[in-house]
C-alpha cells in the first residue's frame, strides 16, 4: 500500500511536469495562433483529466483498505470504551447489590419481586448509602438502555453485544423488570410523572425481546 502511494505520487508529479512542459513548448510554437492554442489546451486538459482519473482508480483499492482499517480501529476503540464503562466501580457495585438480593430468594421465580421491592424502597430512602446504591442501579439500567439504543440504531450487532456482555443483558432486565413496570405506572421516584415514563427503558425491553427470540 505504501509503495502504491509512492508510485502514484511520482506518476502524478511526472504527469504534471510533462503537461507544463508541453504547454510551454506549444505556446511558443503557436505563439500567435490563439485558436490553435485553445484546441491544444483543451486536448491537454482532457488528457490530464483522464490520466488523473486513471491514477485515482489505481489508488482506489489502497484507499478502501485504509478506510476499512480505520473503521476497524474506531470500532475496536468504541468497544473498549463500552467494556471499560461496564467494568467501572459503580457498575460492579450495582451488580454486587443485585446479586446479593437475588441470593436471598428461595424460589428463583421470586427474584424480580424481591429486587423490585428493594429498589423501590431504596428510591424512597434518604440515607446517603441507599441513595448511592440506588443511583448505581439506575446507572446500570441507563447503561443497558444506551447499549440497546446503539443496537436499535444499527451501531452494534446482536452478536457483538452477546460476546461482550453474555447473559448479563437478559439477566438484569429479568431482575429489574418489575421495577421498570412500577416506574412506568407510577412515575419517577419523587412521584412526579413525566411523559417519557410510559416508555421508560423501551430500547432495553426491545433488545431483550430480540435476544429471547434468537
Can you give a write-up of this model?
Helix content is about 80%, strand content about 0%. The protein has eight helices and no strands. The chain has helices at about 1-30, 35-85, 90-100, 110-125, 130-150, 160-165, 170-185, 200-214. The radius of gyration is 32 Å and the shape is elongated.
Largest sheet: none
What distance lies between the first and last C-alpha atoms, to the nearest angstrom?
41 Å
Number of helices: 8
Mean pLDDT: 79
Low-confidence stretches: none
Shape: elongated
Report the C-alpha radius of gyration, rounded: 32 Å
Quaternary status of these chains? single chain
Can you give the helix content as a percent range?
Answer: over 70%
**Can you count the beta strands?**
0
Tell me what portion of residues adopts beta-strand conformation. under 5%
Structural class: mainly alpha
Reconstruct the topology from this structure.
Layout lengths: L1 H28 L4 H53 L2 H14 L8 H13 L4 H25 L5 H8 L2 H19 L15 H12 L1
Amino acid at each position: 500500500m505504501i509503495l502504491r502511494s509512492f508510485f502514484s505520487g511520482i506518476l502524478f508529479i511526472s504527469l504534471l511536469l510533462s503537461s507544463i512542459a508541453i504547454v510551454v513548448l506549444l505556446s511558443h510554437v503557436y505563439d500567435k495562433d490563439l485558436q490553435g492554442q485553445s484546441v491544444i489546451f483543451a486536448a491537454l486538459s482532457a488528457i490530464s483529466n483522464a490520466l488523473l482519473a486513471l491514477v485515482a482508480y489505481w489508488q482506489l483499492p489502497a484507499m478502501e483498505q485504509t478506510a476499512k482499517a480505520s473503521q476497524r480501529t474506531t470500532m475496536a476503540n468504541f468497544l473498549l470504551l463500552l467494556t471499560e464503562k461496564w467494568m467501572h466501580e459503580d457498575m460492579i457495585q450495582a451488580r454486587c447489590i443485585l446479586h446479593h438480593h437475588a441470593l436471598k430468594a428461595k424460589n428463583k421465580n421470586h427474584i424480580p419481586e424481591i429486587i423490585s421491592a428493594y429498589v423501590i424502597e431504596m428510591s424512597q430512602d434518604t440515607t446517603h448509602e441507599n441513595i448511592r446504591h440506588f443511583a448505581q442501579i439506575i446507572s446500570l439500567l441507563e447503561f443497558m438502555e444506551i447499549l440497546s439504543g446503539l443496537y436499535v440504531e444499527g451501531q452494534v450487532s446482536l452478536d457483538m453485544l452477546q460476546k461482550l456482555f453474555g447473559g448479563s443483558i437478559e439477566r438484569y432486565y429479568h431482575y429489574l423488570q418489575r421495577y421498570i413496570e412500577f416506574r412506568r405506572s407510577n412515575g419517577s421516584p419523587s412521584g412526579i410523572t413525566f411523559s417519557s415514563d410510559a416508555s421508560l427503558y423501551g430500547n432495553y425491553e426491545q433488545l431483550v425481546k430480540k435476544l429471547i427470540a434468537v
